[in-house]
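Backbone shape codes:
***
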Amino acid sequence: MRDGILHVNFNAQYLDVTAARYVVSERERQFGGIPVCILVEQMGVTKFSKEARDYLGTEEGQRGVIAMAVIVDSPFKASIVNFFIKVSRLKYQLRLFMRRAEALKWLQKQLQLQED
């Protein structure tokens, strides 16, 4: 984590509920419930199980997340993330970016809004 932003790489192509629960538990273990912004720098995931999507949409799955920025490098990856946004009941903002600098700037603004 740098400057209050957790940098993440998802290299797996498939995210099932077991993996989703693991990611959430590791985030909570490492940060002890401290709210964080998340920057997904590499998005290898091309498919989410329904159970994983449902879990990530729960209060438990979203706990401690202020906002998330996902850097996408193709229309295909953008469509996958947009589908996830539409079917999930996210309580935090999730935005797509093509450029890392823009994503970081937006996340830093979200952190500042949280602190105010």
Notes: The radius of gyration is 13 Å. Residues 54 and 112 are 29 Å apart (CA to CA). The first helix runs from residue 17 to 31. Residues 5-115 form a domain with the Transcription Regulator spoIIAA fold (CATH 3.30.750).
